[in-house]
Specification:
The structure is a single chain. The chain is an all-alpha fold. The chain has one domain. The protein has two helices and no strands. The longest helix has 22 residues. The protein starts with 7 loop residues before the first helix and ends in a 9-residue tail after the last helix. This is Phage integrase SAM-like domain-containing protein. Pfam families: Phage_int_SAM_5. GO terms for molecular function: DNA binding. It comes from Flaviramulus basaltis. Keywords: DNA-binding.
């Protein structure tokens, strides 16, 4: 898909975030899969903390 519908940099960002979410779910919930319907405010705040502390990511509001 990269180069056709989306740019290469967008595809790279997608896979980077995918890896972050996957690592977070595995470490926080000890599972390999997590249902979208179970994502709530607590999940988001824990994920934000994970990004800031474990992955050293900066959260920039849009």
């Amino acid at each position: 898909m990269a180069g056709k519908d989306i740019s290469v940099s967008t595809a790279k960002r997608y896979w980077t975030y995918y890896d972050h979410v996957k690592q977070f779910i595995e470490e926080e919930y000890n599972v390999e899969d997590y249902k979208l319907k179970d994502i709530d405010y607590q999940f988001i705040t824990k994920f934000e903390f994970f990004l800031k502390t474990v992955r050293n990511c900066i959260i920039i509001p849009h």
